[in-house]
Amino acid sequence: MKKPFLNLIFFILFLNSSIIEAQNIQIIPQPNTIIYGKKSFIINENTKIVSSNDAKLIEQDLVNYFKNEFNLSLKTTQQGFAKNNFITFKIDKNLQNEAYELTVEDDKITICAKNKAGWFYGNQTLMQLLSYNSHYSQYENQIKVKGIKIKDAPRFKWRAFMLDEARYFKGKEQVKLLLDEMAFLKMNTFHWHLVDDQGWRIEIKKYPKLTEIGSKRKSTQIGPLQWESPIQSAEPHKGFYTQEDIKEIVAYAQERNITVVPEIEMPGHSTAAIASYSWLGTSKKEIEVPIKFGVGKDVYDVTNPRVTQFLKDVLDEVMTLFPSKVIHIGGDEVKYNHWKNSSSVQQYMKEKKLKTPADLQVYFTNSISNYLQSKGRRMMGWNEIMGHNLHEYQDENDTQTSQKLAKESIVHFWKGDVELATTAAKNGYEIVNSLHSSTYLDYRYKNLPFSKAYAFNPIPKDLDVKYHDKVIGLGCQMWGEWIPTIGEMHYKVFPRIAAYAEIGWTNLENKDFSAFKISLKNLQDRWASKNIYYAPNEFVEKK
């Protein structure tokens, strides 16, 4: 009778030791499968990195990492020249896109993946494993890392961070810093909001006034009352990215397995463009780039062939700069009274048998979708592109529509009853879930505390399992109205970006907020070393 009892004791002790060991593996986002080995691998000056033409940039990242972090100068060698004590990258076509397997044995470390994306993410995990979960001896100039096998793949294919620079221009160096942190956290989509009422931030060579006029405003609304504030800065604000800047940033992102998805707002949030070329608007009046935030003074006259040609010309230059298959057109917060007050727009609607402004918006949006498809691209927009009634300033009758949004569209859900998202999924649309109350980084921590950010699930609770694959991921949005400085942006983004990274990557059953907060300390140390002014722990859970 004693032997089964002893076996049970041994099993419990083994289980407890495994749990303790698991808690020592501090990696964000948390890997989905971890198997522990008994032996260890020693990395020293004799360790080689086996070279592969397909993984050149990743290998160089690793060489730089060892030099910068541990002052170890590792050399590369060709396949077959290292018998032991090496790090190698191998192809495994059976793995899914972005998946990887990382194995630490007593004589080598192997990262297997189907493609460069998987190798890149395996490399990020290896660097976190070595930095935070190994023993470095400065005297022996070596790193001891325990044997481990990690099998990992993302939960969602769309793991996005959005930066709004239309309101405040931040510049190349900050964008690159954000891309570095996204890559380290295995986020793969940089949603770049470059155009809005208060600023146009991208050079379009065919229409130079967009940056000559539209990238500048003479003052900016400021003050603690925010949207209701009467206070002005009385200081001009300006800035835009040249096409060469854009190419540089896109290339930088590509090296980090990040796709840059530009957002070019239409038909609303277009005042900066209309201030540049008055004929673009419905009123045709000369206006200035707004100095107050909120929805703008006019919208594009989408019934005018000259305006729609302008938008196609802009998109042509945008598509030349951005290889992304997805182009975001915004589509949110279009004040329909501008169209209702235009006799030419009303005449156009009668000719096309469009009964409501929402009909006109969906009709226009589908024409842009068709144009993008003809160029091998795909349209994405905020969920107003479906004709949803989300705003109190709209007449409910104006938001009734019989038009059906093009099926190829990606619906970016941000506001409204969650049933709107489930209905879109049931109707076959792919969805990126960015519900504002859970993902808007401009919100104060008392409104969106760290725990609430971490608890967000992009798949709506009541969505039938058969539609789960229609939710392709999530975005977290750094809207810029009230973040004039880089430090304020850092405070809002960090540490919440890490929570969204884990939501996007880690399977629901493997998430653990307590373990996540322990691992977060490592990221905070990294951020501090890079002069990222993250919000202190005592502020991120403010009530």
Give an overview in words.
With 543 residues, the chain is α/β, with parallel strands linked by helices. 36% of the residues lie in helices and 19% in strands. The strands form 5 sheets. Strands 1, 2, 3, 4, 5, 6, 7 and 8 form an 8-stranded mixed beta sheet that branches. An 8-stranded parallel beta sheet has the order 17-10-9-22-21-20-19-18. The termini are far apart. The model is unreliable at 6-23 (pLDDT under 50).
State the separation between the terminal residues, measured CA to CA. Answer: 55 Å
- Structural class comes to alpha/beta
Rg over C-alpha atoms, rounded to the nearest angstrom: 26 Å
What characterizes the major β-sheet? Answer: 8 strands, mixed
The number of strands is: 22
State mean pLDDT (0 to 100 scale): 92
Query: Rough shape?
Result: elongated
Spans of at least 5 consecutive residues whose pLDDT stays below 50 are 6-23
**So how many helices?**
18
Percent of residues in helices: 25-40%
What portion of residues belong to β-strands? 15-25%
Give a quick rundown of the structure.
This protein has 543 residues and is of the alpha/beta class. The protein is 36% helix and 19% strand.
Question: How are the secondary structure elements laid out?
Answer:
Layout: H1 2-24, E1 33-43, E2 48-50, H2 56-70, E3 75-77, E4 86-91, E5 100-104, E6 108-113, H3 116-132, E7 134-137, E8 142-152, E9 158-164, H4 172-184, E10 189-193, E11 195-196, E12 199-200, H5 209-212, E13 216-217, E14 221-222, E15 231-232, E16 237-238, H6 243-255, E17 259-263, H7 271-276, H8 305-321, E18 326-328, H9 337-340, H10 343-351, H11 357-374, E19 378-382, E20 410-413, H12 418-426, E21 430-433, H13 436-439, H14 450-455, E22 471-478, H15 486-493, H16 496-505, H17 513-529, H18 537-540
Parallel strand pairs: 2-3, 2-4, 4-6, 9-10, 9-22, 10-17, 18-19, 19-20, 20-21, 21-22
Antiparallel strand pairs: 1-8, 5-6, 5-8, 7-8, 11-12, 13-16, 14-15
